[in-house]
Amino acid sequence: MRILSKKQVKELVLYSPQHISRLEKAQKFPKRIQLGPNRVGWLESEVLDWLRLRLESR
């Protein structure tokens, strides 16, 4: 299990942090994990699954 930082997610999906946040709120992107008071991350497997679904639906 690997946790991705906000920067790593941004580089992987090529969306701005603001857009990623909007997608999360619309339940169209994996939910973040609160790691500490000022730190969040995403499970790599969930983000990769999300990307796979996007590729399959094109």
Strand content: 15-25%
Mean residue pLDDT: 96
Helix coverage percent = 40-55%
Sequence stretches where pLDDT stays below 50 over 5 or more residues? none
- N-to-C order of helices and strands: EHHEEH
Sheet having the most strands: 3 strands, antiparallel
| Sheet with the most strands: spatial strand order | 1-3-2
DSSP helical segment count? 3
Pfam families: Phage_AlpA
Organism: Litoreibacter meonggei
Protein name: AlpA family transcriptional regulator
What does it look like?
This protein has about 60 residues and is an alpha+beta fold. The chain has one domain. Helix content is about 50%, strand content about 20%. The chain is built from 3 helices and 3 strands; from the N terminus they run E-H-H-E-E-H. It has helices at about 5-15, 15-25, 45-55, and strands spanning about 5, 35, 40-45. It has a 3-stranded antiparallel beta sheet. A hairpin with a 2-residue loop joins strand 2 (about 35) and strand 3 (about 40-45). InterPro entries: AlpA. It comes from Litoreibacter meonggei. Pfam families: Phage_AlpA. This is AlpA family transcriptional regulator.
Care to give the gist of this entry?
With 58 residues, this protein is of the alpha+beta class. Helix content is 52%, strand content 19%. It is built from three helices and three strands; from the N terminus they run βααββα.
